[in-house]
């Protein structure tokens, strides 16, 4: 259930049932790698923001959200 909740948190799935369907479709290992990637990206973005680094055309969170929607 933790993986399902992370998929929803990162915008990879719209709901729990959608998350389970994605896991069946793509396979558990593929989903785990994708969630680990986004978890790493969010941690790095938070680290950069704590250090005061900014991207010229927007916040890191906005860029990550755009990347998820592709």
Account of the 3D structure:
The model has no long low-confidence stretch (mean pLDDT 85). The protein is mainly α and 70 residues long. The longest helix has 23 residues, at 28-50. It contains four helices and no strands. 73% of the residues lie in helices and 0% in strands.
Q: What order do the helices and strands follow?
A: HHHH
How many discrete structural domains? 1
Largest sheet: none
Can you tell me the overall shape? Answer: elongated
**Low-pLDDT residue intervals, each spanning 5 or more residues:** none
How is the secondary structure organized here?
Layout: H1 2-9, H2 16-26, H3 28-50, H4 60-68
Helix pairs in contact: 2-3
Overview in brief:
With 70 residues, the protein is mainly α. The chain has helices at residues 2-9, 16-26, 28-50, 60-68.
Defining traits:
single chain, 70 residues, mainly alpha, 4 helices, elongated
